[in-house]
Specification:
By secondary structure, the protein is mainly beta. The chain has a domain of 56 residues. 7% of the residues lie in helices and 31% in strands. The strands form 2 sheets. Strands 4-1-6 form a 3-stranded antiparallel sheet. β2 and β3 form a beta hairpin. The protein starts with 9 loop residues before the first strand and ends in a 15-residue tail after the last strand.
Length: 91
């Protein structure tokens, strides 16, 4: 899978030794995997809820282990019919 953002509120992942890279400006920065920690990255709907005060990061998985990888994220996402508007406390 290539670089992407997540369109929901958040994604929660356990880590298995594969790392994640974030796009910062024109560069990719590796975020080292920590098998003792979970990773949470925030999505586009959360960015909308907080009026852009949180900016979604373009990210990609890096496979430095050379092994096959399965990923089973817990995606936190409102339903497709949900209306996502800015929170009034942010305005």
């Amino acid at each position: 899978m290539g670089p992407k953002t997540d369109d929901g509120l958040a994604a929660h992942l356990g880590q298995d030794g594969h790392a994640l890279a974030l796009r910062v400006g024109e560069d990719w920065r590796d975020i080292p995997a920590n098998p003792d920690a979970d990773l949470c990255h925030l999505g586009e709907k959360l960015e909308r809820l907080v009026c852009g005060q949180h900016v979604v990061m373009l990210h990609r998985v890096t496979n430095r282990l050379g092994a096959e990888r399965l990923s089973f994220p817990l995606l936190i996402d409102p339903g497709t019919a949900a209306v996502v508007e800015a929170l009034p406390i942010v305005e």
